[in-house]
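Service request form, structural biology core

Requester: graduate student, group of Dr. S.
Request type: structure prediction, single chain
Budget code: on file
Notes: please return the result as structure tokens.

Sequence provided:
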Amino acid sequence: MGLNWEFTGGETELDPDELNGLLIPLIATRADLDEYEQANIQKARIGLARRRITPNLLLSETFIKRLHKMMYADVWKWAGTFRKTEKNIGVDPVHIAVDLRQLLDDARYQLEHDTFSPDEFAIRLKHRLVSIHCFVNGNGRHARLFADLLIKSLGAEPFTWGAFSEMPDVREIYFTALRKADRGDVKPMMVFARS
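Core staff response, request fulfilled:
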């Protein structure tokens, strides 16, 4: 395989075994890979748009895995399976299932008791999902789509994730908001999600 993986920061590094899970031959650059992944994600979005999805359906390990598989199954063999290796972000792989179960239990409680507004609920859940980092790669995109599905299931519009931002470096704004959320301040991420 000739993939020239350029790690620029913000994305997860893949080990050689994980890179060998690439299903598409003749990908040479990160831009090529991004294009194939985006096509697969768009296919998943179209399929999901036809379904009525409830918060209870979303808040399950089965759906979390199924969503990742829908988003990446055309590109990666390991799509929809929890990672088994340490990464530059996320919990120890042996803790993924337990931490995810705790996250989903917390989310069901928060939903039942209207603990947060719909936007804050979805953003907090998205942030914790990324922090666990369930999968080898694609966790940020997976968590954003999950948050979009969740907010829509709660009767609100999907997030725009900086699509209408006037700022030139949307990616840096996103990472700054993520770092603030890591310290407990989710407001910048909420603002970014609606910008």
